[in-house]
Amino acid sequence: MNDKKNFLSCEKRIVFELLMLAAGMMGAYTFNLRGGVFCNAQTANFVMMAAKLGQRDWSGGLYFLIPVSAYFMGSVISEILPKPIKKKTFFRWDTWLIAFETAVIIGVGFIPLSVTDQVVQVIINFICSMQYNTFRQAESIPMATTFCTNHLRQIGIWTVKTVKHRNRESFERLRSHVMMIAVFFLGGLTETVACELVSEKAIWLAVVPLGINLMILIYADLVKEKELMEKVPSGH
């Protein structure tokens, strides 16, 4: 395994775990209160669009172009902005993104349940896409921070390799992916309870892990890694 001192703060596992915790909360929030859908990824939207069009429900099928387009634009914007942002400000794009995401989540909590669910769904689609595209590798390990499918696959792979090779690197990889699913599950569980207690404002629970990450990244940009602003995170 690489020396952890070589990694930027935005690549540290704790940052990715906190992002995954927030993603579990966002997924549970949209599922429990905003239309019974999971907005962190797009596979379901493509399946639903195909099903609706197959049933000749043209308007229902074409609607899914909206959340898909929001996710697409999130990836495009998060691909374009990092370099100009880094050159013109004291902070990395990663830091600005977490600040933006935190502000959006706070705003979503003020949107009453009487507003059509699709508004919140599209907003969550957009910020999840930017998060997924921005945070790619945790200490050289490819990671998804908004859904679990790849982590489950990696757990299978690294379970076999850990049993076969019995080395520390295999075990660390296995542990990393198990932890990502565990914190996602924890986020979904706690958010579901919060939804029952405080309704639409339950999304503010996600501000906690995002806020911790924001403090970590601001400190890194202004103090700890001030001289490393030109260093590009792994995977970019």
Task: Describe the 3D structure.
By secondary structure, the protein is mostly helical. The chain has one domain (11-228): Up-down Bundle (Growth Hormone, Chain: A), CATH 1.20.1250. It is built from 10 helices and 2 strands, in the order αααααααββααα. Helix 8 (149-165) runs antiparallel to helix 9. The longest helix is centred in the C-terminal third of the chain and has 31 residues, at 168-198. It is globular and about 55 Å long.
How do the helices and strands line up, and which of them pair or pack?
Elements: H1 13-33, H2 43-54, H3 58-63, H4 65-80, H5 82-88, H6 93-108, H7 117-134, E1 137-138, E2 141-142, H8 149-165, H9 168-198, H10 207-224
Antiparallel strand pairs: 1-2
Helix pairs in contact: 1-7, 1-9, 1-10, 4-7, 6-7, 6-10, 8-9
CATH topology name: Growth Hormone, Chain: A
* Name of the CATH architecture: Up-down Bundle
Category by helix and strand content = mainly alpha
What is the H/E order? HHHHHHHEEHHH
Topology, number of strands: 2
First and last CA, distance: 20 Å
| Uncertain residue segments | none
Number of helices: 10
Based on Cα principal axes, name the global outline. Answer: globular
Estimate the helix proportion, in percent: 55-70%
The order of strands across the largest sheet is: 1-2
User: The biggest beta sheet, please?
Assistant: 2 strands, antiparallel
What's the CATH class label?
A: Mainly Alpha
Overall mean pLDDT: 93
**Count of individual domains:** 1
Radius of gyration: 18 Å
The proportion of strand residues reads: under 5%
